[in-house]
Design a protein that fits this description.
It is a single chain. The protein is mainly alpha-helical. Among the domains are: 56 residues; 160 residues, MetI-like fold (Orthogonal Bundle). The chain is built from 15 helices and no strands. α4 packs across α8, α4 packs across α11 and α11 packs antiparallel against α15. The termini are far apart. The relative contact order is 0.12.
Amino acid sequence: MHKIQEMFSGKTKNKIDKISRFGYKNKDFLFKFFVYLILIDVAFVFLYPLIYMVVASLKTAQDFADPYTYWIIKQPTLENLRDAYETMSFLRSATNSIIIALASSIAQVISCSFIGYGFARGKFPGRDLLFILALFTLIVPPQTIIVSLFILYQRLNWIDTYYPFIIPSLFGQGLKGALFIYIFRQFFKGFPQELEDAARIDGAGGIRIYSQVFLPLSKPAILVVSLFSFVWHWNDYFEFSIYIMDKRKATLPIKLLDLNWWFTEVKMGYGGATGMFQLNEGVEMAGCLLVIAIPLILYAFAQKYFVSSIERTGLVG
């Protein structure tokens, strides 16, 4: 009798275990399903403009006129890319953008890391007040001070040069300079005090500790600041349109305006007519694709290190 009861209890236990495992698998499957569904939705929101840009750049005028042709292209062409490449003087404009973005990002890494080190490890009167004032510059729109800056740079003979972008970056200013100071300051504050004390026992001063101890250990913060600074300077339109008058020194975002002029006056011969964007949409999208090509390639190579660096700098959350 006991053996029969043990046999039935064993079978019942096995059935209960199977049911419980099946329930856990179902719960795990449903959880993963909803997670992937949300991720696909979010990815679509971000990828939709890029996909549309690529598709539109390959369309002909006939494809744009056909209401049934939206994603499926009947006659793909590279003519739009060629026209945008030639009209924007891509090589020269891209070189200008690279010079400004690269020089400014290097300058901001050097200056903002040094200032952030001072705010994080230095002890001097008014340190916290100065840091708050530095952060306050983030909420001041550049449009409110652009007139005074233009007058200043004009007196310094900096108009039509790259000095208004590079020189301020050397002093911790420039585009989003306060944000980069904040990133370095938070990163340097996370270092243990014992590390600095050991360097001081070895006879190192503040600058030596910064250059030989803290800076080599701050590669995640350097990578984040470098990429952010490069991309923001690359995409900036407002300040470049104010300080750069010579078209030969124009950057790629500014050269996008030439596409409308080229289409209306050169290709269509309308003498500067407006309202031609729909006919010119393929060339416009091709130009936008050329503008974002280099940052996309840069991010594709640095994506793995960039994500891990973002987590280590404490920007997430």
